[in-house]
Amino acid sequence: MNASIYPGKRAATRELILDHAYALARREGLEGLSIGALAQDVGMSKSGVFAHFGSREELQLAVLQAGQQRFLEQVKFPALSQPRGLARLRAIIGAWIGWIRAYPSGCVLLAAASEYDGREGPLHDKVAQQQAGWRRELVRTIGHAVENGELRQGAEPTRIAFEIHALMLGLHHDAALFGFDEAQGHAWAAFERLLASYRPQGGQGGAP
Amino acid sequence: MNASIYPGKRAATRELILDHAYALARREGLEGLSIGALAQDVGMSKSGVFAHFGSREELQLAVLQAGQQRFLEQVKFPALSQPRGLARLRAIIGAWIGWIRAYPSGCVLLAAASEYDGREGPLHDKVAQQQAGWRRELVRTIGHAVENGELRQGAEPTRIAFEIHALMLGLHHDAALFGFDEAQGHAWAAFERLLASYRPQGGQGGAP
DNA sequence: CAAAAGAACGAACGATCGTGCTATTTTCGT
DNA sequence: ACGAAAATAGCACGATCGTTCGTTCTTTTG
Predict the structure, then answer these.
(1) A8-197 is classed in which CATH architecture?
(2) Is nucleic acid strand D under 7 Å from B62's C-beta?
Protein backbone atom coordinates (compact mmCIF):
# COMPACT_ATOMS: atom_id res chain seq x y z
CA MET A 1 0.00 0.00 0.00
CA ASN A 2 1.13 3.52 -0.65
CA ALA A 3 -0.27 5.85 1.97
CA SER A 4 2.26 8.56 1.20
CA ILE A 5 1.02 11.50 -0.76
CA TYR A 6 2.63 13.89 -3.11
CA PRO A 7 5.66 15.37 -1.40
CA GLY A 8 7.38 12.01 -1.40
CA LYS A 9 10.13 11.03 0.93
CA ARG A 10 12.69 13.39 -0.45
CA ALA A 11 10.73 16.53 0.25
CA ALA A 12 9.63 15.20 3.62
CA THR A 13 13.11 14.54 4.98
CA ARG A 14 14.28 17.76 3.45
CA GLU A 15 11.71 19.54 5.57
CA LEU A 16 12.80 17.55 8.58
CA ILE A 17 16.40 18.51 8.01
CA LEU A 18 15.48 22.15 7.56
CA ASP A 19 13.55 22.08 10.81
CA HIS A 20 16.62 20.97 12.70
CA ALA A 21 18.86 23.27 10.70
CA TYR A 22 16.68 26.22 11.53
CA ALA A 23 16.79 25.40 15.22
CA LEU A 24 20.54 24.95 15.10
CA ALA A 25 21.09 28.17 13.18
CA ARG A 26 19.09 29.98 15.83
CA ARG A 27 21.68 29.05 18.39
CA GLU A 28 24.91 29.07 16.40
CA GLY A 29 24.13 31.43 13.58
CA LEU A 30 24.02 30.52 9.92
CA GLU A 31 27.78 30.62 9.73
CA GLY A 32 28.08 28.34 12.73
CA LEU A 33 25.79 25.77 11.19
CA SER A 34 27.84 22.67 10.36
CA ILE A 35 26.70 19.66 8.41
CA GLY A 36 28.18 17.23 10.89
CA ALA A 37 26.35 18.67 13.87
CA LEU A 38 23.19 18.93 11.83
CA ALA A 39 23.37 15.30 10.72
CA GLN A 40 23.85 14.16 14.28
CA ASP A 41 20.91 16.28 15.37
CA VAL A 42 18.65 14.82 12.70
CA GLY A 43 19.93 11.30 13.22
CA MET A 44 21.36 10.82 9.76
CA SER A 45 24.79 10.49 8.25
CA LYS A 46 26.68 13.53 7.10
CA SER A 47 26.55 12.45 3.49
CA GLY A 48 22.86 11.72 3.74
CA VAL A 49 22.17 15.24 4.82
CA PHE A 50 24.67 16.66 2.39
CA ALA A 51 23.06 14.95 -0.58
CA HIS A 52 19.89 16.95 -0.07
CA PHE A 53 21.57 20.27 -0.72
CA GLY A 54 24.76 19.67 -2.65
CA SER A 55 26.75 22.23 -0.73
CA ARG A 56 26.79 23.97 2.59
CA GLU A 57 25.94 27.26 0.96
CA GLU A 58 22.83 25.78 -0.61
CA LEU A 59 21.83 24.48 2.79
CA GLN A 60 22.27 27.94 4.28
CA LEU A 61 20.25 29.47 1.49
CA ALA A 62 17.52 26.91 2.09
CA VAL A 63 17.48 27.77 5.79
CA LEU A 64 17.13 31.43 4.91
CA GLN A 65 14.27 30.59 2.58
CA ALA A 66 12.55 28.49 5.23
CA GLY A 67 13.00 31.25 7.79
CA GLN A 68 11.47 33.78 5.47
CA GLN A 69 8.50 31.56 4.82
CA ARG A 70 7.92 31.09 8.53
CA PHE A 71 8.21 34.79 9.14
CA LEU A 72 5.73 35.66 6.45
CA GLU A 73 3.32 32.97 7.61
CA GLN A 74 3.42 34.15 11.17
CA VAL A 75 3.67 37.90 10.67
CA LYS A 76 2.41 38.94 7.28
CA PHE A 77 -0.33 36.55 6.22
CA PRO A 78 -2.46 36.78 9.37
CA ALA A 79 -2.44 40.56 9.01
CA LEU A 80 -3.90 40.32 5.52
CA SER A 81 -7.29 39.68 7.11
CA GLN A 82 -7.24 43.28 8.31
CA PRO A 83 -8.21 46.10 5.99
CA ARG A 84 -5.35 47.89 4.29
CA GLY A 85 -3.87 50.75 6.24
CA LEU A 86 -3.41 51.37 9.92
CA ALA A 87 -5.32 48.33 11.10
CA ARG A 88 -3.15 46.04 9.03
CA LEU A 89 -0.03 47.84 10.19
CA ARG A 90 -1.04 47.31 13.79
CA ALA A 91 -1.70 43.65 13.12
CA ILE A 92 1.72 43.30 11.55
CA ILE A 93 3.45 44.92 14.49
CA GLY A 94 1.58 42.76 16.96
CA ALA A 95 2.45 39.59 15.11
CA TRP A 96 6.02 40.76 14.67
CA ILE A 97 6.39 41.27 18.40
CA GLY A 98 4.94 37.81 18.88
CA TRP A 99 7.53 36.45 16.47
CA ILE A 100 10.33 38.04 18.47
CA ARG A 101 8.96 36.61 21.68
CA ALA A 102 8.74 33.16 20.12
CA TYR A 103 12.46 33.15 19.35
CA PRO A 104 14.08 34.65 22.41
CA SER A 105 17.52 33.44 21.45
CA GLY A 106 17.37 35.58 18.35
CA CYS A 107 15.83 35.59 14.90
CA VAL A 108 17.78 33.70 12.26
CA LEU A 109 17.01 36.22 9.54
CA LEU A 110 18.22 39.16 11.59
CA ALA A 111 21.31 37.33 12.74
CA ALA A 112 22.04 36.47 9.13
CA ALA A 113 21.61 40.09 8.13
CA SER A 114 24.24 40.95 10.69
CA GLU A 115 26.53 38.12 9.63
CA TYR A 116 26.50 38.76 5.91
CA ASP A 117 25.94 42.48 5.52
CA GLY A 118 29.63 43.10 5.11
CA ARG A 119 30.48 40.27 2.73
CA GLU A 120 29.60 39.40 -0.79
CA GLY A 121 28.18 36.33 -2.44
CA PRO A 122 24.85 34.55 -2.68
CA LEU A 123 24.16 34.64 1.03
CA HIS A 124 24.65 38.36 1.21
CA ASP A 125 22.43 38.81 -1.80
CA LYS A 126 19.70 36.64 -0.36
CA VAL A 127 19.74 38.44 2.96
CA ALA A 128 19.75 41.85 1.34
CA GLN A 129 16.88 40.87 -0.93
CA GLN A 130 14.85 39.55 2.00
CA GLN A 131 15.36 42.66 4.06
CA ALA A 132 14.62 44.93 1.14
CA GLY A 133 11.49 42.97 0.32
CA TRP A 134 10.13 43.15 3.82
CA ARG A 135 10.89 46.82 4.02
CA ARG A 136 8.92 47.32 0.83
CA GLU A 137 5.97 45.54 2.40
CA LEU A 138 6.14 47.86 5.38
CA VAL A 139 6.35 50.92 3.17
CA ARG A 140 3.35 49.79 1.15
CA THR A 141 1.16 49.25 4.18
CA ILE A 142 2.18 52.58 5.64
CA GLY A 143 1.43 54.18 2.29
CA HIS A 144 -2.09 52.77 2.47
CA ALA A 145 -2.52 54.30 5.89
CA VAL A 146 -1.50 57.66 4.47
CA GLU A 147 -3.88 57.28 1.55
CA ASN A 148 -6.65 56.41 4.00
CA GLY A 149 -6.02 59.61 5.86
CA GLU A 150 -5.04 57.63 8.96
CA LEU A 151 -1.60 59.19 8.91
CA ARG A 152 -0.83 62.78 8.08
CA GLN A 153 -0.80 63.75 4.43
CA GLY A 154 2.76 64.22 3.30
CA ALA A 155 4.19 61.78 5.80
CA GLU A 156 7.01 59.80 4.22
CA PRO A 157 6.21 56.05 4.34
CA THR A 158 9.87 55.27 3.76
CA ARG A 159 10.84 57.24 6.83
CA ILE A 160 8.13 55.79 9.01
CA ALA A 161 9.04 52.29 7.89
CA PHE A 162 12.63 52.94 8.90
CA GLU A 163 11.53 54.03 12.34
CA ILE A 164 9.20 51.10 12.86
CA HIS A 165 11.79 48.63 11.67
CA ALA A 166 14.27 50.26 14.02
CA LEU A 167 11.89 49.77 16.92
CA MET A 168 11.64 46.09 16.13
CA LEU A 169 15.41 45.85 15.98
CA GLY A 170 15.55 47.52 19.36
CA LEU A 171 13.03 45.10 20.75
CA HIS A 172 14.94 42.16 19.33
CA HIS A 173 18.15 43.46 20.83
CA ASP A 174 16.77 44.25 24.26
CA ALA A 175 14.62 41.14 24.49
CA ALA A 176 17.62 38.92 23.90
CA LEU A 177 19.91 40.75 26.29
CA PHE A 178 17.71 42.26 28.97
CA GLY A 179 14.52 40.24 28.87
CA PHE A 180 11.48 40.36 26.65
CA ASP A 181 8.86 41.79 28.96
CA GLU A 182 10.37 45.16 29.69
CA ALA A 183 11.52 45.57 26.10
CA GLN A 184 8.03 44.82 24.85
CA GLY A 185 6.63 47.62 26.95
CA HIS A 186 9.12 50.07 25.50
CA ALA A 187 8.46 48.93 21.97
CA TRP A 188 4.67 49.16 22.19
CA ALA A 189 4.79 52.58 23.77
CA ALA A 190 7.29 53.83 21.24
CA PHE A 191 5.17 52.50 18.41
CA GLU A 192 2.06 54.24 19.66
CA ARG A 193 3.97 57.47 20.21
CA LEU A 194 5.32 57.15 16.72
CA LEU A 195 1.85 56.77 15.25
CA ALA A 196 0.58 59.64 17.37
CA SER A 197 3.21 62.00 16.07
CA TYR A 198 2.26 61.16 12.49
CA ARG A 199 -1.50 61.47 13.03
CA PRO A 200 -3.38 63.94 10.85
CA GLN A 201 -3.84 67.45 12.36
CA GLY A 202 -1.91 66.59 15.53
CA GLY A 203 1.75 65.82 16.10
CA GLN A 204 4.86 67.68 15.09
CA GLY A 205 8.14 67.02 13.35
CA GLY A 206 8.34 65.95 9.72
CA ALA A 207 9.11 68.26 6.82
CA PRO A 208 9.52 71.94 7.72
CA MET B 1 70.78 51.24 24.28
CA ASN B 2 67.23 50.94 25.40
CA ALA B 3 65.03 53.41 23.58
CA SER B 4 61.87 51.49 24.33
CA ILE B 5 59.62 52.91 26.96
CA TYR B 6 57.20 51.38 29.37
CA PRO B 7 54.80 49.23 27.34
CA GLY B 8 57.60 46.93 26.35
CA LYS B 9 57.54 44.63 23.41
CA ARG B 10 54.90 42.34 24.78
CA ALA B 11 52.24 45.00 25.11
CA ALA B 12 53.20 46.53 21.80
CA THR B 13 52.75 43.40 19.72
CA ARG B 14 49.64 42.60 21.69
CA GLU B 15 48.22 45.87 20.50
CA LEU B 16 49.32 45.10 16.98
CA ILE B 17 47.63 41.73 17.10
CA LEU B 18 44.46 43.26 18.49
CA ASP B 19 44.45 45.81 15.69
CA HIS B 20 44.43 43.08 13.10
CA ALA B 21 42.04 40.95 15.11
CA TYR B 22 39.60 43.81 15.33
CA ALA B 23 39.73 44.34 11.60
CA LEU B 24 39.27 40.64 10.95
CA ALA B 25 36.40 40.35 13.39
CA ARG B 26 34.69 43.20 11.60
CA ARG B 27 34.51 41.08 8.48
CA GLU B 28 34.08 37.57 9.84
CA GLY B 29 32.49 38.19 13.20
CA LEU B 30 34.00 37.31 16.55
CA GLU B 31 33.04 33.69 16.10
CA GLY B 32 34.62 33.60 12.65
CA LEU B 33 37.90 34.94 13.97
CA SER B 34 40.50 32.18 13.72
CA ILE B 35 43.98 32.23 15.15
CA GLY B 36 45.53 30.88 11.98
CA ALA B 37 44.08 33.57 9.77
CA LEU B 38 44.93 36.20 12.33
CA ALA B 39 48.55 35.05 12.58
CA GLN B 40 48.90 35.15 8.81
CA ASP B 41 47.42 38.63 8.77
CA VAL B 42 49.79 39.90 11.42
CA GLY B 43 52.77 38.10 9.92
CA MET B 44 53.47 35.88 12.88
CA SER B 45 53.22 32.21 13.66
CA LYS B 46 50.05 30.74 15.08
CA SER B 47 51.74 29.83 18.32
CA GLY B 48 53.28 33.26 18.60
CA VAL B 49 49.88 34.87 18.45
CA PHE B 50 48.34 32.24 20.65
CA ALA B 51 50.89 32.77 23.41
CA HIS B 52 49.66 36.31 23.91
CA PHE B 53 46.20 35.24 24.97
CA GLY B 54 46.33 31.65 26.14
CA SER B 55 43.08 30.69 24.51
CA ARG B 56 40.84 31.74 21.69
CA GLU B 57 38.19 32.87 24.11
CA GLU B 58 40.63 35.18 25.84
CA LEU B 59 41.51 36.63 22.46
CA GLN B 60 37.86 37.22 21.70
CA LEU B 61 37.35 38.86 25.06
CA ALA B 62 40.35 41.08 24.40
CA VAL B 63 38.91 42.10 21.04
CA LEU B 64 35.64 42.99 22.73
CA GLN B 65 37.52 45.04 25.28
CA ALA B 66 39.49 46.82 22.58
CA GLY B 67 36.32 47.52 20.64
CA GLN B 68 34.64 48.99 23.66
CA GLN B 69 37.58 51.24 24.33
CA ARG B 70 37.53 52.50 20.75
CA PHE B 71 33.82 53.09 20.91
CA LEU B 72 34.05 55.07 24.12
CA GLU B 73 37.01 57.07 22.83
CA GLN B 74 35.24 57.96 19.63
CA VAL B 75 31.67 58.38 20.88
CA LYS B 76 31.56 59.08 24.59
CA PHE B 77 34.68 60.97 25.56
CA PRO B 78 34.42 63.74 22.93
CA ALA B 79 30.87 64.40 24.10
CA LEU B 80 32.04 65.01 27.65
CA SER B 81 33.18 68.47 26.56
CA GLN B 82 29.53 69.38 26.15
CA PRO B 83 27.46 70.38 29.18
CA ARG B 84 25.36 67.65 30.68
CA GLY B 85 21.94 67.25 29.16
CA LEU B 86 20.61 67.70 25.69
CA ALA B 87 23.79 69.17 24.24
CA ARG B 88 25.80 66.18 25.36
CA LEU B 89 23.13 63.81 24.10
CA ARG B 90 23.27 65.45 20.68
CA ALA B 91 27.05 65.18 20.67
CA ILE B 92 26.83 61.52 21.52
CA ILE B 93 24.36 60.82 18.75
CA GLY B 94 26.46 62.71 16.23
CA ALA B 95 29.60 60.85 17.18
CA TRP B 96 27.70 57.56 17.24
CA ILE B 97 26.49 58.11 13.71
CA GLY B 98 30.06 58.91 12.74
CA TRP B 99 31.14 55.65 14.34
CA ILE B 100 28.63 53.72 12.27
CA ARG B 101 29.77 55.43 9.10
CA ALA B 102 33.39 54.63 9.92
CA TYR B 103 32.64 50.90 10.02
CA PRO B 104 30.29 50.31 7.12
CA SER B 105 30.79 46.56 7.20
CA GLY B 106 29.32 46.47 10.67
CA CYS B 107 30.26 47.21 14.24
CA VAL B 108 32.06 44.40 16.04
CA LEU B 109 30.31 45.05 19.33
CA LEU B 110 26.86 44.94 17.78
CA ALA B 111 27.66 41.87 15.76
CA ALA B 112 28.93 40.21 18.91
CA ALA B 113 25.73 41.14 20.72
CA SER B 114 23.84 39.35 17.99
CA GLU B 115 26.18 36.37 18.02
CA TYR B 116 26.22 35.73 21.75
CA ASP B 117 22.88 36.93 23.01
CA GLY B 118 21.46 33.43 22.92
CA ARG B 119 24.37 31.53 24.44
CA GLU B 120 26.01 31.45 27.79
CA GLY B 121 29.56 31.82 28.97
CA PRO B 122 32.11 34.59 29.38
CA LEU B 123 31.54 36.07 25.93
CA HIS B 124 27.83 36.40 26.48
CA ASP B 125 28.46 37.96 29.86
CA LYS B 126 30.94 40.44 28.48
CA VAL B 127 28.64 41.48 25.67
CA ALA B 128 25.66 41.82 27.97
CA GLN B 129 27.66 43.87 30.42
CA GLN B 130 28.91 46.17 27.67
CA GLN B 131 25.46 46.76 26.26
CA ALA B 132 23.96 47.30 29.68
CA GLY B 133 26.72 49.72 30.58
CA TRP B 134 26.29 51.79 27.48
CA ARG B 135 22.55 51.86 27.94
CA ARG B 136 23.09 53.15 31.46
CA GLU B 137 25.21 55.94 30.07
CA LEU B 138 22.46 56.89 27.68
CA VAL B 139 19.85 56.84 30.42
CA ARG B 140 21.99 59.04 32.62
CA THR B 141 22.53 61.67 29.97
CA ILE B 142 18.84 61.68 29.10
CA GLY B 143 18.07 62.00 32.79
CA HIS B 144 20.23 65.12 32.91
CA ALA B 145 18.28 66.56 30.02
CA VAL B 146 15.06 65.98 31.93
CA GLU B 147 16.50 67.55 35.06
CA ASN B 148 17.57 70.55 33.00
CA GLY B 149 14.03 71.00 31.78
CA GLU B 150 15.17 70.33 28.21
CA LEU B 151 12.87 67.33 28.03
CA ARG B 152 9.39 67.14 29.43
CA GLN B 153 9.07 66.54 33.14
CA GLY B 154 7.98 62.97 33.74
CA ALA B 155 9.55 61.65 30.56
CA GLU B 156 11.04 58.23 31.19
CA PRO B 157 14.78 58.26 30.40
CA THR B 158 14.76 54.49 30.18
CA ARG B 159 12.11 54.58 27.49
CA ILE B 160 13.77 57.36 25.54
CA ALA B 161 17.10 55.55 25.71
CA PHE B 162 15.45 52.46 24.26
CA GLU B 163 14.08 54.47 21.37
CA ILE B 164 17.35 56.22 20.65
CA HIS B 165 19.29 53.00 20.83
CA ALA B 166 16.75 51.44 18.49
CA LEU B 167 17.29 54.24 16.00
CA MET B 168 21.01 53.58 16.02
CA LEU B 169 20.38 49.89 15.48
CA GLY B 170 18.17 50.80 12.56
CA LEU B 171 20.85 53.04 11.13
CA HIS B 172 23.45 50.33 11.54
CA HIS B 173 21.18 47.83 9.84
CA ASP B 174 20.17 50.03 6.94
CA ALA B 175 23.61 51.51 6.42
CA ALA B 176 25.12 48.07 6.02
CA LEU B 177 22.42 46.76 3.70
CA PHE B 178 21.06 49.74 1.82
CA GLY B 179 23.77 52.37 2.03
CA PHE B 180 24.75 54.84 4.70
CA ASP B 181 23.60 58.12 3.24
CA GLU B 182 19.89 57.50 3.00
CA ALA B 183 19.85 55.71 6.33
CA GLN B 184 21.61 58.62 7.97
CA GLY B 185 18.90 60.98 6.79
CA HIS B 186 16.22 58.78 8.28
CA ALA B 187 18.07 58.42 11.55
CA TRP B 188 18.71 62.13 12.02
CA ALA B 189 15.14 63.05 11.21
CA ALA B 190 13.78 60.38 13.49
CA PHE B 191 16.04 61.52 16.29
CA GLU B 192 14.90 65.12 15.98
CA ARG B 193 11.27 64.07 15.80
CA LEU B 194 11.83 61.96 18.88
CA LEU B 195 13.28 64.89 20.79
CA ALA B 196 10.48 67.13 19.59
CA SER B 197 7.80 64.82 20.88
CA TYR B 198 9.45 64.80 24.30
CA ARG B 199 9.97 68.56 24.49
CA PRO B 200 8.43 70.42 27.41
CA GLN B 201 4.93 71.89 26.77
CA GLY B 202 4.83 70.62 23.17
CA GLY B 203 4.54 67.10 21.77
CA GLN B 204 2.15 64.29 22.60
CA GLY B 205 2.29 60.69 23.62
CA GLY B 206 3.94 59.47 26.80
CA ALA B 207 2.13 58.96 30.09
CA PRO B 208 -1.59 59.84 30.03
C1' DC C 1 80.11 40.52 27.52
C1' DA C 2 77.76 36.61 29.67
C1' DA C 3 73.72 34.98 31.80
C1' DA C 4 68.88 35.02 32.69
C1' DA C 5 64.30 36.06 30.90
C1' DG C 6 61.09 36.78 27.48
C1' DA C 7 59.02 36.29 22.90
C1' DA C 8 58.29 33.95 18.67
C1' DC C 9 58.81 29.85 15.90
C1' DG C 10 57.92 25.19 13.93
C1' DA C 11 56.09 20.91 14.17
C1' DA C 12 52.65 17.95 15.70
C1' DC C 13 48.32 16.48 18.10
C1' DG C 14 43.40 15.09 17.74
C1' DA C 15 39.18 16.92 16.12
C1' DT C 16 36.16 18.72 12.90
C1' DC C 17 35.27 21.01 8.65
C1' DG C 18 33.06 20.46 3.65
C1' DT C 19 33.04 17.42 -0.02
C1' DG C 20 33.74 13.61 -3.10
C1' DC C 21 33.22 8.67 -4.05
C1' DT C 22 31.15 3.83 -3.78
C1' DA C 23 28.03 0.53 -1.50
C1' DT C 24 23.91 -0.57 0.62
C1' DT C 25 19.46 0.04 1.89
C1' DT C 26 14.82 1.71 1.12
C1' DT C 27 11.11 3.15 -1.62
C1' DC C 28 7.92 2.83 -5.49
C1' DG C 29 5.80 1.68 -10.01
C1' DT C 30 4.41 -2.25 -12.30
C1' DA D 1 6.73 -9.56 -5.63
C1' DC D 2 10.35 -7.96 -8.42
C1' DG D 3 13.31 -4.81 -10.62
C1' DA D 4 14.41 0.16 -11.36
C1' DA D 5 15.33 4.25 -9.06
C1' DA D 6 15.93 7.05 -5.34
C1' DA D 7 17.75 7.80 -0.73
C1' DT D 8 21.01 7.01 2.75
C1' DA D 9 25.26 5.12 4.81
C1' DG D 10 30.23 4.46 5.01
C1' DC D 11 34.68 5.82 4.17
C1' DA D 12 38.38 8.74 2.80
C1' DC D 13 40.47 13.08 1.26
C1' DG D 14 42.76 17.47 2.17
C1' DA D 15 42.26 21.52 4.89
C1' DT D 16 41.80 24.01 8.96
C1' DC D 17 40.60 24.35 13.70
C1' DG D 18 42.54 25.34 18.77
C1' DT D 19 46.12 23.81 21.51
C1' DT D 20 50.59 21.87 23.36
C1' DC D 21 55.49 21.34 23.48
C1' DG D 22 60.30 21.92 22.83
C1' DT D 23 63.47 24.85 20.48
C1' DT D 24 65.44 29.10 18.81
C1' DC D 25 65.93 33.77 18.48
C1' DT D 26 65.79 38.43 20.79
C1' DT D 27 65.82 41.38 24.51
C1' DT D 28 66.97 42.77 29.05
C1' DT D 29 69.75 42.51 33.10
C1' DG D 30 73.94 41.98 36.16
Answers:
(1) Orthogonal Bundle (1.10)
(2) no
